Amino acid sequence: MFLKKLFLIAAAVAAFSGCSMMPAGNAASASPEVAAAAERLRIAMIDPTAAALGALVADDLSYGHSSGKVDTKASFIGDLVDGKSDFVAITITDQTIKVVDGQTAIVRHTLAADTNDSGKPGKVALKILGVWQKQGGSWKLLARQAVRI
Question: Which of 68, 99, 108, 117 has the fewest CB atoms inside 10 Å of its own CB, making it the most exposed?
């Protein structure tokens, strides 16, 4: 009986010790927040406003397009708002999210889109790697790389 009580006490101490060592906002709880931010970005890319995009994109954004062009925050937002890069519809599939340290997340997905870049209809299929960072309590896109499939 004494060994059983000792075992239960040791198990309880181990369980509570593990909980206290978990960081606030651990990876499991952060993943839905990152997914929500990625979805807000998808919607903002279809119906772009500088305010909506600015709230989702980090000031230090590095956005590598499948064409080889690299955008900054200003050029990424400008091209979307001006219609140079115009997404009519975007479908995201096969999305995975890995929150690394509670402040950084790696998001991968497949993107299929109907486009109308500078008034020219088209379609695009891409594999996307996004790096999101928690800044000031919000998840922001820090880096993105697209590859044609």
Answer: 68
Helix (H, G, I), strand (E, B) or coil at 103: coil
DSSP character string of 6-55: HHHHHHHHHHHHHHHHSPTT-HHHHHHHHHHHHHHHHHHHHS--HHHHHH
In tens, the pLDDT along 3-26 reads 344 333 433 333 333 333 334 445
Place of tokens 């010790």: 17
Under the banding of pLDDT at 50, 70 and 90, the label for residue 29 is confident
Is residue 106 within 8 A of residue 100, CB to CB? The reply is yes
| Residue-wise pLDDT tens digits, 43-78 | 999 999 999 999 999 999 999 999 999 999 999 999
Residue tagged 């500078």 (tokens)? 118
125 and 148 in contact (C-beta within 8 Å)?
yes
Look at the alpha carbons of 94, 26, 56, 68 in this order and tell me if their dihedral is positive or negative. negative
| Residue 85 per-residue DSSP state | S
